[in-house]
Amino acid sequence: MNKLYKIGELARLANVSPRTVDYYTTLGLILPEKRTGGNYRLYSDETLVRLKRIDELKKAKYSLEEVKEELDQSNSVATDAQVADKIVSLRLHLEQLEREVHQVKPMIARLNPSQARNAFKHLTPHTVACIEALLVLLGKDPMM
Known about the structure:
Layout: H1 7-14, H2 18-27, E1 34-35, E2 41-42, H3 45-59, H4 64-75, H5 80-110, H6 113-120, H7 125-137
Helix pairs in contact: 1-2
């Protein structure tokens, strides 16, 4: 059986204030599992995990509205048609990336190592990782 927590216990475990738990409940970000005979709200372990996810999203600069959308989206179960649509969308995106790689490939090949390193200095780490992954997929060694 899942352990149930009163607001204060949940707040302490999630490292938030009881007022935050109350506010998130009001916004619908979290919901009590049930109520006691004295009308106290009781929250489950899943709520504790959800509070930690909310904290991660807030640290990533999501607004509370965006947090709610993200949590609602992650809780919804996709239908077969939605999954098929997503696969088609990803396949089309991959084909577009492959076309772009073939356009950029000659330019990359003409760069000497010092030029490549200099170019990489102006890119975000995420972009560099994507470029290096594409180079590996093309059978070339990463430039850095």
